[in-house]
């Protein structure tokens, strides 16, 4: 049967939905505080963009030409990795240089 233009079942469902959502409502003050805690300032949203911008050319990092073969790239990598490995090179910048060399090799050796 229809009451007020809507089927009775729809009225019951709407009434139940209103009651259900009313039980979970919070006061405006609680909502504002909860939202404020989850806001991340835009200054913290860099997603490591500065590292990727400062990364040098992988060919330059390994000291090979852009037309170098896979074996030449591998040979250059192994030579530089041996030279700058932190276990054998005590220079404070060796670890950073080794990471750059390793990153460049990963980029160039990826098929």
Describe this structure in words.
It is a single chain. The chain is built from six helices and two strands, in the order ββαααααα. By secondary structure, the chain is mainly alpha-helical. It folds into two domains: 2-40, no CATH class; 56-109, DnaJ domain (Helix Hairpins), CATH 1.10.287. It has a two-stranded antiparallel sheet. A hairpin with a 2-residue loop joins strand 1 (2-3) and strand 2.
Summarize the structure.
By secondary structure, the chain is mostly helical.
What does the radius of gyration come to?
Answer: 31 Å
Strands of the widest sheet, in order across it, are 1-2
CATH topology of the largest domain: Helix Hairpins
Name of the level-1 CATH class of the largest domain: Mainly Alpha
Domain count: the total is 2
What general outline do the C-alpha atoms trace?
A: elongated
CATH architecture of the largest domain: Orthogonal Bundle
Q: CATH superfamily of the largest domain, called what? A: DnaJ domain
Percent of residues in helical segments? 55-70%
Largest sheet: 2 strands, antiparallel
Sheet/helix structural class: mainly alpha
The sequence of SSEs as H and E is EEHHHHHH
Q: What is the helix tally?
A: 6
Protein name: J domain-containing protein
Keywords: Chaperone
Pfam families: DnaJ
Organism: Photinus pyralis
Describe how the helices and strands are arranged.
Elements: E1 2-3, E2 6-7, H1 8-23, H2 28-38, H3 49-54, H4 58-62, H5 70-84, H6 94-109
Antiparallel strand pairs: 1-2
Helix pairs in contact: 5-6
């Amino acid at each position: 049967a229809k009451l007020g233009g809507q089927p009775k079942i729809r009225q019951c469902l709407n009434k139940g939905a209103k009651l259900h959502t009313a039980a979970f409502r919070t006061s405006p003050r609680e909502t504002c505080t909860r939202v404020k805690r989850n806001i991340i300032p835009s200054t913290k949203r860099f997603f490591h963009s500065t590292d990727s911008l400062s990364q040098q050319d992988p060919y330059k990092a390994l000291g090979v030409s852009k037309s170098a073969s896979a074996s030449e790239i591998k040979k250059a990598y192994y030579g530089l990795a041996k030279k700058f490995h932190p276990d054998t090179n005590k220079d404070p910048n060796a670890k950073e240089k080794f990471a750059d060399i390793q990153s460049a090799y990963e980029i160039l050796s990826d098929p």
